[in-house]
Amino acid sequence: MNADDLIREYRAGDVREVEQCLAELQDFSKLIFPNVAAGTIAPDYLRHLLSRCAETNGKIFVVESVGRVVGMVCVFANVKSDAADEERYEYAYVSDLLILPDHRGKGLGRALLKRSEEYARSQGASLFRLNVLARNTVARSLYLGCGFDELVVTMQKTL
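The chain above was modelled as a monomer; its predicted structure follows.
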């Protein structure tokens, strides 16, 4: 991050730029995992994220560089475990994190992740989770470098 970069909460005026970030994330993810919806879903997906934020005390944070949103993270601060085979507990969950391609490699993703973790902690979370596509090696490296451990591996086979 440099002096021109600012992390702040999402505002209604950010909708188009955040939709652009989500479209970029969806299109990239679709290259790795074809079942992911294309970026054209971004407006509906943003509405879904905002609804989930309302349900889970979540927030969207953006990183702004020279007055333009160039990245975002969505964190749900109070998610209740509902797995039938687990004890009941709460955790915070990062649903989406993206930095636009021209702004990668500057520590912005790490800074957004740190901000979302601070927020989750301030809301009482003691567990912080996220999912990442196995072949997204750059993101996996970031998360491992930020102290995340691999917990569950989902396997898939085409029939």
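The longest strand covers residues 68-80.
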